[in-house]
Design a protein that fits this description.
Blueprint: H1 2-29, H2 32-51, H3 66-80, H4 83-90, H5 99-115, H6 120-138, H7 143-160, H8 162-177
């Protein structure tokens, strides 16, 4: 690493000398054709001098994976309020055992259940609850999984009645405090 930096600094100073001697003096003393000829001769040195400053692919940022692109697209769709598209997009990946995909899918299912009819909403709540349970089994320390688990426990308790809701309140609190 030190040698690379030393090479870059040395290469940069050589580049400055070449440019100063050839180009500046060419514009000062000589005709236009000679300046073009000297510029043409020094252009490989300019390229070599810049070669040390350009980052290689290893030093560049890590490439964006398809998962990151998918999650960014899903988050953008969520901000737009297009929950059905999120559901259609992520339902293909629900068997992938990826926690980030599962909790985002559950989030979309919950938002869809808020706008669904009285017949469709319980089906969506139970589907989301099953998926968030799978996500919790995969990774127990993910904050979003616990958040959405508490939300689904609350919704499920509301559907099942007051007695079931009271029984689940301790679990809801436990997931919110994790």
């Amino acid at each position: 690493m030190l040698l690379q930096r030393l090479y870059r600094v040395t290469n940069y100073r050589i580049l400055q000398r070449i440019l100063y001697k050839n180009i500046y003096s060419a514009y000062k003393k000589e005709s236009g054709m000679q300046a073009v000829r000297k510029l043409w001769v020094t252009s490989p040195f300019i390229t070599m001098g810049m070669w040390g400053f350009i980052k290689s692919k290893d030093e560049a940022e890590t490439p964006i994976t398809t998962k990151e692109v998918l999650l960014a697209k899903v988050d953008a769709l969520f901000d737009q309020g297009d929950y059905k598209s999120i559901y259609n997009l992520l339902s293909n990946y629900k068997d992938s055992k990826d926690v980030d995909i599962l909790w985002r899918l559950c989030r979309a299912i919950y938002k869809m259940s808020e706008m669904a009819s009285d017949v469709e909403a319980p089906k969506l709540i139970y589907e989301g609850y099953d998926l968030i349970c799978i996500a919790l089994d995969i990774q127990e320390d993910h904050y979003a999984v616990h958040k959405w688990m508490s939300i689904f426990l609350n919704s499920k308790g509301t559907l099942e009645g007051t007695k079931a809701h009271i029984k689940e309140l301790y679990n809801i609190k436990k997931h919110l405090l994790v």
